[in-house]
Amino acid sequence: MNRRPTVGAVVVNHDGGERLLRVLSALRAQSYPVDEVLVVDNASTDGSLARVGAAFPDVRVLHLERNAGIAIARNAGLWALRTRLGLLLDHDVYAEPECLARMVLAFETQAATVVCPRVRLLPERHVVQADGAALHFLGTQILHHGYEPLDGATAAGGAVNSCIGACMLVDREAVLAAGGFDELFFFYFEDLEFSMRLRSQGHRIWCEPAALVYHERAAGTPRLSFRGR
Questions:
Q1: Based on CB atoms within 10 Å of each CB, which residue in 61, 152, 169, 185 is the most buried?
Q2: pTM metric for this prediction
Q3: Confidence of residue 196 (pLDDT cuts 50, 70, 90)
């Protein structure tokens, strides 16, 4: 444990409300130590930050004056962390208690720069959203087991060419040295470009299905969010 990689969590929030509090509660329940938690807030107007301060006074908050997009928020969070690894989460992604421990183990044993978990949906817990993805330079990523029933998805981990931005564990310094997330992207495609650039530089991305998060389907952002249909 004295040589364990330190982990800081970056939760990107925009009007996450109660969902954000559930994300933070799930981080607090991790079996692997989370050394610091940082909420990067994209100009929320729903009182999110006041609720975080009341419920989680130990959580650091970085408030951005405007909603400049998820790529800028993730980069700001990674620069602000003081840990070896960064766990990136959206404000509607809930990690199971053993998730981080299994992602760190994969990071150490698989020589990966990025580790992504198995992402399942809420409320449809039996549906896999993604086990990593394949790159498609003309469109969105091709999700492995995308929106498929859980019983048809393999349980084995493996190297992948890409992963979705909902949740990933990254080697912080290596990712920042590679340029972080391209800030020209506001939302969507930033994870596609990020994965393509890392792979082109020889970095390894690993999907660990034993590490589990749940992504709340909810309503998404009208005319923007994709929810499998």
A1: 169
A2: 0.94
A3: very high
